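lol ok so funny story. i was supposed to be doing the assay writeup but got distracted and ended up predicting the structure for this chain instead. priorities right. anyway since i did it might as well share w the group, maybe its usefull for someone
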Amino acid sequence: MSDDEIEELRQRFLDEMGDDFVPDEVSPGSFGCHEALHMADFLMESVDRSLLGHPAVVQNPAWFELAYKAHQALFQLYQDIGIAHLEADDDEPPPEGAGTP
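and the output, tada:
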């Protein structure tokens, strides 16, 4: 799939979300963004435990390569979401009364 086709698919997903899509609820720093971060970690760990170590996958070079690439892609997704999420948290002022005895 080309980059243009991937973007077309993303736009179609956005269109299908319609009014259910509220950017502030999923932007970096939000609970929705944290949820995506958690799912990237969960799926990365699942690929690691359930596929990379599975004998059927390990014995087949093509399958192992695909599982490895899936793990690496999920790791990169986790890192990218995490960086954006933490940077957004740094931009937020501390809650009122935070740090006062």
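The chain has a mean pLDDT of 90. The chain is about 75% helix and 0% strand.
back to the writeup now i swear
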